[in-house]
Write a structure and sequence with these properties.
alpha+beta; six-stranded mixed β-sheet; about 170 residues; two-stranded antiparallel sheet
Length: about 170
């Protein structure tokens, strides 16, 4: 009985986290429209493989989820919505970080935009900052570029950082 209740709580918690993440992504898209920023969501992909049950789709991980652009400047990022007040090392996906770092090496700004629900803050963390985070450590919203509260965050400052090579001084 205890395991069934625990499993149900995990399922419900996961569904709530997914719903919060989807809402945050929609809010990002709405904010971009308000600020006249181009917003691109990279769709999840599939490859098809023949198996014992016929041809089946196999999900392919996307390198990151979003690109925003304005006036010839672009930012590549993944969005996270966290119920607690810290971004833990375990929330950083290695395949995403690898691709985001590649974008940073090409002089693009890249990283994570994170909504900290408990603190009601939205912050940006560069790929370089995420790479330096040791295992079993975490980042608070104030460790990143604070974009504002969830009701009024602004993405334009990120685009102003594009081309500024020492992003680390901005964190």
């Amino acid at each position: 009985m205890f395991n069934q209740k625990k499993n149900l709580n995990n399922i419900l918690g996961g569904q709530k986290a997914k719903l919060n993440g989807d809402r945050f992504e929609l809010l990002l898209q709405k904010r971009c429209a308000q600020e006249k920023i181009s917003f691109i969501k990279i769709p999840s992909g599939f490859r098809f493989a023949r198996g014992s049950f016929g041809v089946q789709p196999i999900p392919i991980k996307t390198p990151f989820d979003f690109i925003i652009a304005k006036d010839g400047k672009a930012v590549f990022f993944d969005a996270k919505c966290l119920s607690n007040s810290s971004l833990t090392y375990s929330k950083i996906k290695p395949h995403q970080l690898e691709k985001l770092l590649e974008m940073e090496q090409q002089s693009f700004l890249s990283g994570y935009i994170v909504h900290f629900v408990e603190d009601n803050k939205v912050s940006f963390f560069t790929s370089s900052t995420l790479k330096k985070l040791p295992p079993r450590h975490s980042l608070e919203y104030s460790d990143g570029v604070i974009l504002g509260n969830i009701e009024n965050f602004n993405l334009l400052p990120l685009l102003q950082l594009v081309g500024y090579r020492d992003w680390e001084t901005c964190n």
